[in-house]
Amino acid sequence: MAKLLPLSLSLCFLLFSGCFAFREQAHAQQQHQNDFKCQLQRLNAHKPDHRIESEGGFIETWNPNTKPFQCAGVALSRCTLQRNALRRPFYTNAPQQIYIQQGSGIFGMIFSGCPETFEEPQQSQSHKAQDRHQKVYRFREGDLIAVPTGVAFWMYNDEDTPVVAVSLIHTDSFQNQLDQMPRRFYLAGNQEQEFAQYQHSQKGKQQEEENDGSNIFSGFTPEFLEQALGVDRKTVRNLQGENEDEEKGAIVKVEGGLSVTAPPMRKQQQRPQEEEEEEDDEEKSRSKGKGSHKSKNGIEETICTMRLRHNIGQTSSPDFFNPQAGSITTATSLDFPALFLLKLSAQFGSLRKNAMLVPHYNLNANSIVCVLQGRALMQVVNCTGDRVFDGELQEGEVLIVPQNFAVAAKSQSNNFKYVAFKTHDRPKTGTLAGRNSLLNALPEEVIQHSFNLRSEQARQIKNNNPFNFLVPPRQESQRRDVA
Ligand SMILES: *[C@@H]1O[C@H](CO)[C@@H](O)[C@H](O)[C@H]1NC(C)=O
């Protein structure tokens, strides 16, 4: 017995240290994986790999645990809303950009502490109390919507065309102080949040372990909520998502349509952006002027009335335009100040058949390219000069182009359209060919000796492509050989 004790002690010690060593090894392995998450042998075109049906539509997600997504520190999902469908309010642990690929409707965001500036008219006869709520915005195709971290968001489709909204969450943002897992906190319903399944699979648990998610009210005891809201038990049950006959999901159908206090829909939806923005600005300055003789409450100047949508779709004033090649429009924090909070930006581009985006790279951002329409050949090259992607990117597919990796594209259809989300609010691009490119900025002699060329060849490299960023289809007549 006396001999057994030390033996078992040492055995125990051995076991423990073994266990610790194992854990350390696992930890180191994960650390190792994290350290090299951008060591990408090969990039892929990603399709959504999961779809959750709801009463009023569905949500598709891309697996955020794949290496390119981990490298870029982002999570992507796409939500489709049928007519009269309401996406229940939720907030997210990281900043988010939503691009409206199709359709139109209204959305709202709840900023804690901001006043309820939309008021229902007072009706003296009615017993119904007057409703007030925070600002409601209208959105249309081509809009980029900025959703700051932790701000509750909802949206609604009031038209026949289904709304398709692509949403990018920047989980690697400094504003997310949790881990890299995208987390939706639903205010209502009892659906599982759309990224939860990836968390399960990451932990190595079984997929079947159906975790019927609930909303943030569900976890509190009814007594707490009864007192906090001053309502009865039955109402509390609804708040907790418990009185639903069947699971409606994150998108619910509103029978007869939603009625919120909002200005009437504008007739000409396709008005050019400038007009719309000018009008917005005009309205703002008018309200400021009016208030100037009274004491200001200051809300005109704050986040409460900030512009949260900006159209980058087919606009009349793109940033790059060539009728034979296509156009590109970028929203940065300079033209869309809300992006300053998010530290994100986005670019919309459309290319004619056989037109090219010259080889270029993003100096300060990862780029998440989502194809909206058509298809294009794309090539991506890493720092060792290896082609890590060489293939066709089609509608609905996503390619992640990490920072500084070089990328070029050639459209294969007459109307190739994409939106590229970027992880910087003022992204910079460096081109490797054409006017204003890196090569153009180098002295001819440096080119000559760096590439071992004759001087006229160096001059050709600098001068032969007169285009900026978009190169039209190559035609024999356009070849101007400086021989
Ligand atoms: C570049 O890509 C090649 C080909 O996949 C790969 O072998 C190499 O490790 C990559 N280089 C770096 C530094 O990631």
Automatic annotation (TrEMBL):
Gene Ontology MF: a single term: nutrient reservoir activity
Q: Where is the composition biased (Basic residues)?
A: 287-296
Q: Where is the signal peptide?
A: 1-21
What subcellular compartments does it reside in?
Endoplasmic reticulum; Protein storage vacuole
A single GO CC term for this protein reads:
protein storage vacuole
Q: Please name the PROSITE patterns in this protein's record.
A: 11S_SEED_STORAGE (PS00305), PROKAR_LIPOPROTEIN (PS51257)
The record, for InterPro entries, names: 11S_seedstore_CS, 11S_seedstore_pln, Cupin_1, RmlC-like_jellyroll, RmlC_Cupin_sf, Seed_Storage-Functional
Region: Disordered; residue ranges are 198-219, 236-299
Q: Which residues form the Cupin type-1 domain?
A: 43-237, 310-459
Against SUPFAM superfamilies, the record matches this protein to: RmlC-like cupins
Q: Where are the transmembrane segments?
A: none
| Entry keywords, A to Z | Disulfide bond, Endoplasmic reticulum, Seed storage protein, Signal, Storage protein, Vacuole
What stretch or stretches form a coiled coil here?
A: none
Gene3D superfamilies membership: Jelly Rolls
Q: What is this protein's function per UniProt?
A: This protein found in the seeds of many leguminous and non-leguminous plants is the source of sulfur-containing amino acids in seed meals. Seed storage protein.
- Self-association or partners: how does it assemble? Hexamer; each subunit is composed of an acidic and a basic chain derived from a single precursor and linked by a disulfide bond.
What family is reported? Belongs to the 11S seed storage protein (globulins) family.
The entry's protein name is Cupin type-1 domain-containing protein
Name the species this protein comes from: Flemingia macrophylla
